Amino acid sequence: MSEAGTLTQEAPKAAQPTSRKIFMPRADVYETREAIVVLADMPGVDEAGVDITLEKNVLTLRGKVADAKFPEQKLAWAEYAVGDYERTFTIGTDIQSDAISATVKNGVLKVTLPKSQPVQARKISVRAE
User: Fold this and answer.
1) Residue 52 in contact with residue 89, Cβ under 8 Å?
2) Would residue 34 be called left, alpha or beta, if left means φ above 0 and alpha means ψ between -120 and 50 degrees?
3) Which of 8, 40, 80, 88 has its C-alpha lying 20 to 30 A from 52's C-alpha?
4) What is the CATH number of domain 7-67+77-114?
5) pTM as predicted
């Protein structure tokens, strides 16, 4: 990332005890003139299962997968582990935190972090008294 758009990966935090696995979703981060965009793979997560927080310049993405229930079936073999997702990033102060937006489609979470506009220089007129 350039200085204009700062986003760094946070070290994993100690997770609260849970019986579910927590996966770190793979993510792509790209920068445009207007924003930094994070794409995170969270298969099985819908908009109701997403929780995004920004606290002290730490962006936390969480996704909860609904449990699949098959009451009349007994699992014979499992190669796919079901669990939730969590990933954190440190963002720079040059982000408009009140304008962050997110969408989820087909298990891909897209978080858009708009950049703050640079302060424009302005001419100050002086009057004689």
Assistant:
1) no
2) alpha
3) 80
4) 2.60.40.790
5) 0.74
